């Protein structure tokens, strides 16, 4: 039986990489994004032409009604949720020193990255709890955070706070759901080549060439997707709450 994966922000960047990996391994993909599906028409058409089953829902995880409508539609169509990948996230519209950051920017970033993720996960987890166990679990949840959850960037503090919150959400849901045979994990990407990082390419080129990054290259959405696939494989069923750093060695082996 084909498994169902929910991927937030699955139409571009890291999310698209995850969508490709999951559909390439036989999952149907249910995506939610704020833009119309037509924005991702070329990529989704290509995936569907290769046999991928994709359901796209236009909505924002920051909005309660959209979250509920999306999960309800997924369950109505497919009956269960086997995998949830929380990938959707935004950066501040304008990078500002933490002494100048506005409440509007904070609310915007936290509303999507943290609040939206928490309450979408709550909905998906409740659905998973109601499901019979299949292949050793009722579901697997993977949160995409960032090495910004532990690395300070004072010119985008609200982003760092939101990603640090995702790390705690991983622990909280892992703790609460382990007894339900639902396993929760976290992938912390480093510098990944996406639309979000394209605005600061020169800065990151310099950093990647320096001593702090043992692997001197940009990460790719495929690198992150490969980490997600390790967690959703079902081969780590005696683990939960684990974090996998996909950052070129920055966190674990950088020079001091």
Summarize the structure.
The protein is α/β, with parallel strands linked by helices. The protein contains eight helices and seven strands; from the N terminus they run βαβαβαβαβαβααβα.
Folded structure, characterized:
- α1 (13-24) packs across α7 (221-232), α3 runs parallel beside α4 (103-129) and α4 runs parallel beside α5.
- Helix content is 43%, strand content 15%.
- It has helices spanning 13-24, 41-49, 64-78, 103-129, 157-177, 201-209, 221-232, 250-253; strands spanning 4-8, 28-33, 54-58, 83-86, 139-144, 182-189, 243-246.
- With 256 residues, it is of the alpha/beta class.
- β4 (83-86), α4 and β5 form a beta-alpha-beta unit.
- It is built from eight helices and seven strands.
SSE order in H/E notation? Answer: EHEHEHEHEHEHHEH
**Which sheet architecture does the biggest sheet show?**
7 strands, parallel
Which CATH class? Answer: Alpha Beta
Uncertain spans, ≥5 residues at pLDDT below 50? none
